[in-house]
Amino acid sequence: MAASVVEQFKQYGEVRRGWLGAKTAVVTSEIAQSAGLGEKRGALLEAITPGAPAATADLKSGDIVLAIDDQPVKDNREFARRIGEFPPEAEVRLRVWRDRGERDVVVRLGQIPKRGASAPEGKGLKLNARLGAVPGGETGYRGSLGIFAQDVDGALAKALDLAEPAGALVLVITPGSAAQAAGLLPGDVILSVNARKMLSFKDVHHAIRELHPGSEVSLDVWRIGDGAEDFKRTLQARAESGDIPAITALAELHHTGGVVSKDLREAARLYLKAAEAGDAEAMKYLGGMYEEGSGVEKNVVEAARLYLKAAEAGDAEAMGLYGVKYLYGNGVPQSDAEAVKWLQRGAGDGDARSMRNLARMYDQGRGLGQRPRRSGAPDA
Fold first, then answer.
1. How much is the CA Rg of the chain, to the nearest whole Å?
2. Which residues, at least 6 apart from 30, have a Cβ–Cβ distance to it below 8 Å?
3. pLDDT tens digits for 99-151?
4. Contact 353, 318 (CB under 8 A)
5. What b/e string do you get for 103-122 counting C-beta neighbours within 10 Å, with b at 16 or more?
6. b/e per residue, 180-189, with b = 16+ CB within 10 A?
7. Helix, strand or coil, per DSSP, at residue 37
8. pLDDT tens digits for 81-104?
9. 19 and 112 Cβ atoms separated by less than 8 Å
C-alpha cells in the first residue's frame, strides 16, 4: 500500500500513485444483466489505453473488475481509489468477469504519465506561517490563519490527483492575514498542520484555534501549478475532457462560489452531466438543488428521485436524506417504516445525520416503537 500523501511529499517530493491505464464506468443493472453478472457490482473497463499496464496484461474493454487481491470491488469509484493507493510497479491480481465467467489477471501497475504544459503538475509545498489573532479563548485571543475553506471530498481529491479525500481546499484568503504572508493561495489544499494530518476544514480550524497568536505553524500544502488560475484551468480542462470527478468538483465550486465564480445554473448543469454518467455525489448534490430550488426550479419529487439513485449507488448521506423525505412526507408518501429503513442504512454506513434522526424517531416512539436511549447513543 502506498504511503500517505504527506509521507510521500517528505520522501519523494511528489505523490506516486499506481496507474492501470483504463477508463472505467458504472456497472448499471442493464450492463450487469447483459453480461450475465446477475447484480450490479464491480467496475466496467470502458476503454484501455494502448501501451498502458492494462493493455500489457491483456485486459479488455468490456471486462468488469470484481475484486482486487481477493477484496471485492463495490463500484468504479472505489476501484479507481484503491488502484491509486498502490505504488507504481506494484503487482495486483484482478478478478475479472469476461464472457460470462470469472478469471484472474495479474497486472504490474505503472506510474501516472506526466502531463504537458497545458495541464500544470500538482506539487507538494511546505509553508510556514506566523498566526494572527481573533477574539476568544482564556487569554482573550486565539490563533488565526485568515482563510475560508471547504472539505476535500472524493470527487475533488481525484480531480486534483490526491490519493484520498482529506484536507481543506482554500477558497478565500483574507488580505493582510497570516495565510497571505505565508504564501497560501486560493486553490491550495492544506494537508497537515505541524505534521498533524488534517481530514477536513474543521480539523484545520481547530488546530489553528488551539494555538496562541504569534505561534509559528508548518503547513504541508498541495498546489496545482502556480495557484488559483492554474487550478481553475486544470479543473476546467479535465471537466471538458469528460473526467467525471472533475465535472463534479467543478460543479461543487460553482455551487459554493469558491475559487471559480458562483453560478448556480452552471453548477446544476454540471451536476446533471456527472449524474447521468452515474456519479452518486453529483446525484445527491443535484437533489439538494432541486430541494431548495437553487439553480433549478424547485421540485421535491425530483429531489427524492435523485436521493434514491444516489442511495442505491451506496452514498450513505443520500440514504439519510432519502429517509428524511419519508419522515416528513416531502416528495414521497409519509412513512415512518420507510424512514427508519433508510436512516438505518445511512447510520449503518456511518452517516452521522442519519444516526441523529434515527435517535429522534426512537425517542418519539416512531417507526419501530419507543426505544430507551442507551449509554453512548448518538445525541440529537
1. 22
2. none
3. 899 999 999 998 776 544 445 667 788 899 999 988 765 556 788 999 989 99
4. no
5. eebebebbebeeeeeebbeb
6. bebbbbbbbb
7. coil
8. 899 888 888 999 999 999 899 999
9. yes
